[in-house]
Design a protein that fits this description.
The chain is of the alpha+beta class and 862 residues long. It has a domain of 179 residues: PLAT/LH2 domain (Lipoxygenase-1, Sandwich), CATH 2.60.60. The protein contains 29 helices and 20 strands. The strands form six sheets. Strands 4, 5, 6, 8 and 11 form a five-stranded antiparallel sheet that branches. A five-stranded antiparallel sheet has the order 14-15-16-17-18. A four-stranded antiparallel sheet has the order 7-1-9-10, with no helix packed on it. Helix 15 packs across helix 23. The longest helix has 45 residues. The two termini are 44 Å apart.
């Protein structure tokens, strides 16, 4: 191929070939949020006046420098960005296009890369460079997407490769050394504190959640690096340690400055959106001591109507002048200052969550309670019951007999004429089981302001496809000690009298369990935390020239940044999560214990469904599995998306890997997978389930899982948070008192005013405001979101076959999306909409910006 190109070049140059190559560079100058940095603009123009310009040099992909022993590609003469000082620059941050003219050297032949030196005072974001009319080639495009700082900050000039794709062994010889050196730079030397302009991707344990300086109540165990507290690795910052085990923490007001590689930071649009939606408000609330109110709970809703006022005109904030005054004093933006008023005005009005838009009470029905296990914000837990009574997997030596105490008498008359054995054999019995996950921590959790239970919920699959709750078991540790087992009470459905109120409370305790598990495990651990090591390993070991890098890169956008912010203000000691979710200070430690059972291969949707017993292998079914709950919206839509992703990944990988041996001989893939297993998920490195990465099928399955987790799985468990949990009565996050005993004063309270008792049992007013403020932010799409089936640059590769395969993927997603809308109109599919009249759209691929309850972003980006 290269010989043909060279022949074309030589033939052209024998005639009147142009000696100049015109190009364009698209970049964004340094900015502060949505505004161009005017100080930087002045400095840069002065630099231009002094001759300190931005230079670019082409690197040949076919010819090497004669003096280079390591076959580095021949360098062209420097060219400079033109008219920097005279080009119009908008006050609003945005892209600017500059021209650049290269003196063509026929020995360059094929431009395979370019070097760039920024001699300006300020950094800029280089998006693309495009050459036009290159002899023998035509258009050559470089996808850069990187911040370029002053040249003195780099040991070598920055390099960017043309958008060609090469396996390591197929890389043109003049580019190989550059490819290796770029990866070496990204790996760093594992020394010192990392700064904003560094481009280093490295690993560390979660040793930055607690603070020994703030006192013993802020101590948190190190997560990761031990058998006691295993955990995925996070991005290294290199900050100094407060003590041998704990990394120092940034002041809360500097949270936005936490280190992640500069190119992993939010775009200016995303950052502006995040701030506008109040993320800094969350940080200020945490900073100003809301933990003192978490225990005292001085603020109560007096009625359900009081809760509705949040969405129908606002409410007055509790009178806490020192807290609110401090918040307002530190607000940098007037919009954010409006969120927490200190002048007695109405509190900021929240959008009405979808779950109460049609009907204010439909959420309380048993049908909706069961439906949300299939189509709500946490549809990944329910499993088929295979034996009765339900059995525990907890260690008997440590926890005694933890098997369920639900008996046949509790449920026999609710099985539509079937016996229990018949219902199990006919795949009609299901369970939402949080008992084993919570029981080892429950005794400690209940020493905090939380007062809760470990729950098991049995359900029956009716003929119309809906789930009917049969019984709820509320369990608590035995008073003599863990080894003595547990105590429990079993509650069954009731529609009238105080028994109905008791049943509503039992469902609320299930909601509390499920909300905490969802936020800590389904959402944080199983998407955010487990995907970060893949981001780090990919950047350390797969060159931008590598086909798998190009495949996976869109699915890592913003993940390191949002996770770093989470460590600062959400999952840290005293952070937002501990304030608003029932495990309190034991939250992250509990998530560590559940990481032990994480299995990468079971993150594949078909494997997950089979593991939970809600699907079985069936080669005659479209996706290879048959659902045992046919109207299971998450699974139905998820299998469509999963299969589309897998087909796209298969088509793509087959373009570059013709045999299994090509996978085995790919040095970058092998080092990537080895480090991912041994360091990124090092605490599970000896697990037998890790793919060996020796075949194309293993590569395809692994990449499909990575894309699924980063895109569709995260969308399914994240963007429904506000639609369903924005009305906290539907999904309370905390319980503050136990179930009342008959004959007690509390029981009389419940009889006299069941709604008030319900409100005083679940999340308090101030915590409710904090909780829904947070999930409103998390449930919004930013204005620059890129969705599954989309790319931020249509020229992400110069190879035609993958571009055609990607278009095919996009067309398939459009068909799937239309099918989802059609199913939501089918009245026979009762779980698609439910009593609350909320169509299941969480796996609809596309969305507009904002709070939409739909859309699959490419990555874990919020």
């Amino acid at each position: 191929m290269f010989q043909k190109i060279m022949d074309a070049i030589n033939g052209c140059c024998a005639g009147d070939c142009k000696k100049k190559i015109r190009g364009t560079a698209v970049l964004m100058k340094k900015n502060v949020l949505d505004l161009t940095d005017l100080t930087a603009l002045i400095h840069d123009r002065w630099d231009e006046f002094l001759g300190q310009r931005v230079s670019l040099q082409l690197i040949s992909a076919v010819n090497s420098e004669p003096s280079e022993n390591d076959l580095r590609g021949k360098l062209g003469k420097p060219a400079y960005l033109e008219k920097w000082s005279t080009a119009a620059t908008s006050l609003a941050a945005g892209e600017t296009t500059f021209e650049v003219t290269f003196d063509w050297d026929e020995e360059i032949g094929v431009p395979g890369a370019l070097l760039i030196k920024n001699n300006h005072h300020s950094e800029f974001y280089l998006k693309t460079v495009t050459l036009e009319d290159v002899p023998g080639l035509g258009r050559v495009h470089f996808v850069c997407k990187s911040w370029i700082y002053h040249a003195e900050h780099y040991s070598k000039p920055r390099i960017f490769f043309a958008n060609k794709t090469y396996l390591p062994q197929e890389t043109p010889a003049p580019l190989r050394k550059y490819r290796e050196e770029e990866l070496f730079q990204l790996r760093g030397n594992r020394e010192g504190e990392l700064k904003e302009l560094d481009r280093v991707y490295d690993y560390d344990v979660y040793n930055d959640l607690g603070s020994s300086k703030k006192g013993p109540e802020y101590f948190r165990p190190v997560l990761g690096g031990s058998s006691e507290h295993p955990y995925p690795r996070r991005g290294r910052t290199g900050r100094k340690k407060d003590d041998p085990n704990t990394e120092s923490r940034l002041p809360l007001l500097k949270s936005l400055n936490i280190y992640v590689p500069r190119d992993e930071r939010f775009s200016h649009l995303k950052m502006a959106d995040v701030l506008a939606y109040g993320l800094k408000t969350v940080a200020q609330v945490a900073k100003n001591g809301l933990d003192i109110f978490a225990d005292a709970t001085p603020n109560e809703f007096d009625s359900f109507d009081d809760v509705l006022k949040l969405y129908e005109g606002g409410i007055k904030l509790p009178s806490v002048p020192p807290l609110l005054g401090s918040i307002r004093k530190n607000m940098p933006l007037e919009f954010l200052a409006e969120i927490f008023r200190s002048d007695g005005e109405l509190f900021f009005e929240f959008p009405k969550p979808q779950v109460i838009q049609d009907n204010h009470s439909a959420w309380r029905t048993d049908e909706e309670f069961g439906r949300e296990m299939l189509a709500g914000v946490n549809p990944v837990i329910i499993r088929r019951l295979e034996e009765f009574p339900p059995k525990s997997k907890l260690d008997r030596e440590l926890y005694g007999d933890q098997n369920s105490k639900i008996t046949g008498e509790h449920i026999q008359n609710s099985l539509d004429g079937l016996t229990i054995d018949e219902a199990i054999r006919n795949n009609r019995m299901f369970i939402l089981d949080h008992h084993d996950a919570l029981m080892p921590y429950l005794r400690r959790i209940n020493t905090t302001s939380t007062k809760t239970y470990a729950t098991r919920t049995l359900l029956f699959l009716k003929d119309d496809g809906t789930l009917k709750p049969l019984a709820i078991e509320l369990s608590w540790p035995h008073e003599k000690g863990d080894e003595y087992g547990f105590n429990s009470e079993v509650y069954t459905p009731a529609e009238h009298g105080v028994e109905s109120s008791i049943w509503q409370l039992a469902k609320a305790f299930v909601g509390v369990n499920d909300s905490g598990y969802h936020q800590l495990i389904s959402h944080w651990l199983h998407t955010h935390a487990v995907i970060e090591p893949f981001v780090i390993a990919t950047n350390r070991h797969l060159s931008v020239l590598h086909p798998i890098y190009k495949l996976l890169e869109p699915h890592f956008r913003d993940t390191m940044n949002i996770n770093a912010l989470a460590r600062q203000i959400l999952i840290n000691a005293g952070g937002f999560l501990e304030l608003t979710v029932y495990p309190s200070k034991y939250a992250m430690e509990m998530s560590s214990s559940l990481y032990r059972s994480w299995d990468f291969t079971e993150q594949a949707l078909p494997e997950d469904l089979k593991k939970r017993g809600v699907a079985v292998d069936d080669p005659n079914s479209p996706h290879g599995v048959r659902l045992l709950i046919e109207d299971y919206p998450y699974a139905v839509d998820g299998l469509e998306i999963w299969s589309a992703i897998k087909e796209w990944v298969r088509d793509y990988c087959f373009i570059y890997y013709k045999t299994d041996e090509m996978v085995q001989n790919d040095t970058e893939i092998q080092s990537w997978w080895k480090e991912l297993r041994e360091e990124g998920h090092g605490d599970l490195k000896d697990a037998p389930w890790w793919p060996k990465m020796q075949t194309r099928q293993e590569l395809i399955e692994s990449c499909t899982i990575i894309i699924w987790v980063g895109s569709a799985l995260h969308a399914a468990v994240n963007f429904g948070q506000y639609p369903y949990a924005g009305y906290l009565l539907n999904r309370p996050t905390i319980s503050r008192r136990f179930m009342p005993r008959q004959g007690s004063p509390e029981y009389e309270e419940l009889e006299s005013n069941p709604d008030k008792f319900f409100l005083e049992t679940i999340t308090a007013q101030l915590q409710t405001l904090l909780g829904i403020s947070l999930i409103e932010i998390l449930s919004r799409h930013s204005s620059d979101e890129v969705y599954l089936g989309q790319r931020d640059n249509p020229e992400w590769t110069a190879d035609k076959e993958p571009l055609e395969a990607f278009k095919k993927f996009g067309r398939k997603l459009e068909v799937i999306q239309d099918r989802m809308f059609d199913m939501n109109k089918d009245v026979s599919l009762k779980n698609r909409v439910g009593p609350v009249k909320v169509p299941y759209t969480l796996l609809v691929p596309t969305s507009e910006a904002g709070l939409t309850g739909r859309g699959i972003p490419n990555s874990v980006s919020i």
